[in-house]
Structures are given as structure tokens and as C-alpha cells.
Here is the input.
Amino acid sequence: MFFSLKGSQRSSLSRFQSVANYCRDYCRDAGPLEAVRGRTILRVCKGSIMRKPRLMKPILRSRWNLTPQQAMRLQERLRDRVVLSDRFARIRYVAGADIAFDPETQMAFGGVIVYRFPGLREVERRMARRKLRFPYVPGLLSFRECPILIAAFARLETQPDLVLIDGHGRAHPRLFGIACHIGVLFNKPAIGCAKSLLVGDHKEPALRAGSATPLNFRGERVGVVLRTRDSVKPIYVTQGHCVSLETAVKLVRQCVDGYRIPKPTREADHYVRDLRRAYQQSRCRR
Here is the structure.
């Protein structure tokens, strides 16, 4: 078993074996009460050492108990960390993420679904449930939703190479929407795929699927308005982190499977809605 573990687990196992040897000697030479304590220490150490490491762990620590003014200032600081060029190798797995919440209890459900890319075959899905702590403030969606999404990402056993977020990235009042926030926190390529316009102006794309027009905000191109189906409302594609706008549009097109919304975020939306519905039904039965 030792040689089937990764390097970090091997070193941890070595430390565990040292503790285990000490505990066994302690239990053998100690009285009944001390022996119970020794065996308890051994079980706790074994559980913490052999637990699978989290694949999706934020590289930045972030505070969430902020005032809206503090949150805006943090967005402006983190904005400087956003990379707007392609910084990734081969994309084998793409994840879609979204949340839904119950307005009565403020219970939120975050869902992440990982797919093989480009075939879009589902690999796994994970969820997390948390109370919403941050108030609804336009432009500060990430401080309301990120803690739940981070908890869902932490449960993944497959690390995605790209994350699609149901929300905006650079097309944001401070050029730092939720797709940027998630991308920077994990230092992971991220793209925002939004259903509606937040900021900026654009011309209407042609009615044919695949047509696109620039989305501009304060004289800067911050996204692309992409029509994914003939004569159907377009979506808004914006950079989150570590991906160029041209590449972001190309990748989103590869995630479209005949519907208006790309499959990863569409299915994540269905997933969290189902979780919310099940929660609401369980409350009604009480």
C-alpha cells in the first residue's frame, strides 16, 4: 500500500508509522485508561493522514464577513491578479458551477459538475449546502456565492482544467465578477457564461447560431455576445482568469450541445434547482 500512495501521502504515512509505533508501545506499557487514550490518538492520526487530499483548494485565503464597501475595495485589489491571456495546457476536464437558494430560509445550494472535454461526458457532480451570509448587492454576487461554490469544489475527486461559471467575469462594474473571483482564488482558467447583461453595450448579433458581437464597457472590450441557437436570445461570454477572450468564445462554443446555455452551466443550474426543490419539499413534509 505504501508504494501506491503519492509523495505527500508517503511522507505523511511515514510520520503516521512513527506515531503508531509510539502509541503501541505506550498502550503495551500503560494502564487501561492510558491504553484507551493511546488507541484513540492512533485512530485520529490514521484518519487524518489517510484522508484524500483536496484537489480543488483555493490558493488565496479570503475573508467573507465584509461590509459592501470592504468587498468593493477587495475586488479592486484582486482585479490586478486577473490574467487575460491563455495560461493552460491541454483541457481534459471542464466544470460547470452554479448555485440556487431558498428565499424563505436563505439556504443556498452550490453544485459543480465535471465533464470530459471535448466529449462532455459527465465524470462526477458534487454539492454543498450553506446559509447565505452576505446581503444581495448588485455587483457583489461573488461574496454571496463563492463560499458555497468553494465548499462544493472541495469535494471533487477530479480536478477540472477549466471552470465555466453562470455569471460574469470582466463584464462587471469593477471588472471583477464571480468568474474572475473563482478563477483567481483557485488560479484556474475560468469563463463567465451569463444569461443577461450586467454592464456594457453591444450591437445585436445576427440571428444565425454562432454569430457574435463585441461587448464594450467604458471603451474596453470586456466580452462577446454570442448567439448559440438560431433566433434565440444570445448569451454573454466574458473572461474570468487565465484565458483570452478569443479562446473563451471558442471553448464555450465547444460546450454548446444544441441548447442556448452551454451544457456544463445548464446542467449545473438544473442540479442545484433539483437540490433546492428536494429541500423545500422536505420542509413541507415536516
In short: Residues 2-50 form one domain.
